[in-house]
Structure formats: C-alpha cells, structure tokens
Amino acid sequence: GLTGDGVGEVFRAEPVVVDPVRSPVQPLQARAADGAAVEASYRKPPGRGPFPAVVLIHGGLQTQRREKREWFLTRGPVHTRLLAAGYVVVQATFRDYDPNDLLRPGPAQDVEAIYESVRALGFVDAASVALFGGSGGGSLALEVAVRHRPSAVIAGEPATILF
After folding, report:
1. Pairing of strands 26-31, 124-134
2. Strand partners, 32
3. How far apart are CA 59 and CA 79, in angstroms?
4. Measuring CA to CA, which of 113, 126, 137, 158 is 20 to 30 A from 148?
C-alpha cells in the first residue's frame, strides 16, 4: 500500500522535501455526476507546465479528512517523490461507502469528477493523467479506468475485492 495496511510490515521511507512556498497544497473542487460536491488536494511542481499528473486514491471505505490529504502531500514518501520528479500529485477522496450497498456508484462518481477536474487544469497534460490507488482506492482506480482510460493505472491489492 501507500503506507502499509497496519497489519504486517509497513514501508518506511523519508519524504522528499519540496519547497512548500513554491509548491503549496491547494484545494481542488469538483462536482460528481449526481451533483455531490467533491473535494481533493494537490501540489504542482514549480513552473507553468504542462505537467503529467497522478491522482492518488486512499484505501478504506470512508472519506479522508483534508488534514490527512495534506499530510500525504507533504510527508508521504510516494507523493513527494512523484512531485519532485515533476508530476502534479493529487490526493483524492470520496464519499463514504454505503455499508448496506457497497456497489452504489457515489464513491466512483467522486473519483471520476476529480479525475476529469485534474485533466482540465491548465498546467496538466490531459493525456498524461494516471490513477494510483491501494485497497479501496485501488478498486476505485480500476473502476474509473474502465470508463475513462487514464494514461496508466496502479492498483495495489486487495484492489479487486469490491470491483
């Protein structure tokens, strides 16, 4: 996973420090197909672009708080390495899954809205946007990829449980 699942061995690596003044955490607002408001956070490399982008989707079945998204974007070893390598990094989240119906489309609609909003950013190369998720986020990455054909998909197991 992105930081380990907390059960077994956990991957530990120091983040790459990218100047937060030149590359601040920014909010990204989107609207899902059913009208729900969707929120994500991102950092972009210094400069005008266009840059490739990676939409990272957290695991689990519940919304991720803004503070946690900011932590990943500033302290996450995967996120900061991608940013330092010249990618726009987007920490996506989604509405809570309905425990009585895990196949309701809301969470996937949220990720789709974020993906399309990232592609529309003027500093992003719309043909070079990848989806990266682990566990519940991996399931969403696979589901969204079927309909939107991103430039790449990285899905960490157990990504196929819901999909």
Report:
1. unpaired
2. none
3. 15
4. 158
Return the sign of the alpha-carbon dihedral for residues 26, 54, 80, 85: negative
| Among 93, 155, 153, 146, CA closest to 129 | 153
DSSP letters of 104-134? -SHHHHHHHHHHHHHHHSTTEEEEEEEEEEE
pTM: 0.90
Mean pLDDT of 75-99: 95
Mean per-residue pLDDT over the chain, rounded = 91
Residues 6+ apart with CB under 8 A from 2: 56, 58, 59, 72, 76, 78, 134, 156
Q: What percent of the chain lies above the pLDDT cut of 70?
A: 91
